[in-house]
Amino acid sequence: MMRNPNWHEIKQNLKPYEEGQNRANLIVRVFHAKVEQLKHELFKNNICREIGACTNVIEFQKRGLPHAHSFLILETNCKMHTPEDFEKIVYAKIPSQSENPHLFRMVVQHMIHGPYGSLNFFNVCMKKKGSCKNPYPKDFSSKTIQTDDAYPIYRRRQWVSPPEGAWRILKFPLGEMKL
């Protein structure tokens, strides 16, 4: 989870001449509240199945922007073992614009990698050889496959990185950062 300068709670508490980056006290307070809200969702509401163990680290980027890393270990009976288990939680599909225009706009604006390559040589992901360092785009896959090294290859129906769940986008609008 990263701090987002466009969170409503930050913007509504800034004076007209202020910028969020100059109000570390406000940013840290709002960020802490969001992290606690996420923990509540994870541990009390079990949105990510039953969690057996967890460790969290909060770090500050070079310019002082906080972000959190969480490592979750699921209870044995809740772990994902088959491709079908993964597909219940992770999927790569652009939401319907007519059914959920807000979610569609958020995914298209903040969760699709690119443009890069000949369309944008200056994208931060570009290597000197003119290719993406991340390795995108990922190949299409008609179904989720469990690989030998335990990393799944997710079903990919369209050119989109797997969303981390609609709840993350809508409840914790982390992708609203303007570059």
Question: Main sheet: which strands, in order across?
Answer: 1-2
Describe the oligomeric state of these chains in a short phrase. single chain
Query: Hey, roughly how much beta strand do the residues contain?
Result: 5-15%
Low-confidence sequence ranges = 159-168, 174-179
CA-based gyration radius: 18 Å
Number of helices: 5
How many beta-strand elements?
4
What is the number of domains?
Answer: 2
N-to-C CA distance: 17 Å
Roughly how much helix do the residues carry, as a percent range? 25-40%
Shape, per Cα inertia axes: globular
What structural class results from the helix and strand content? alpha+beta
Main sheet record: 2 strands, antiparallel
Mean pLDDT: 76
Order of helices and strands: HHEEHHEEH
Organism: Lactuca sativa
Protein name: Helitron helicase-like domain-containing protein
